[in-house]
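Quick illustration, no need to memorize.
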Amino acid sequence: MTVPEIEAKDVPAGAYLLDVREQGEWVAGHAPDAVHIPMGELQARLDEVPAGQPVYVVCRVGGRSAHAAAWLNHVGREAVNVGGGMQSWEAARRPMVSESGQEPFVA
């Protein structure tokens, strides 16, 4: 199955951005408006993912998010993988925040 993909720099402002990384990665640095649902919890928390609008899925480099986006599309959501993940997000100088009180970075 082919998963739609977009470059981090092209994710629209105000988009629903789903971050599927683990807690430690999230704390180190994430997009300010992202929703955090670790990949391992995604099936159990599917109701938190909106239907009827694009969901942009991101991880560290794009592998986990591609799997998550494929599964979301399979169950009827409209998911798009963010190619290159948060590493590309950071390289594109998109906004990032940290929960650790330190300068945000991609863990």
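The CA atoms of residues 5 and 104 lie 25 Å apart.
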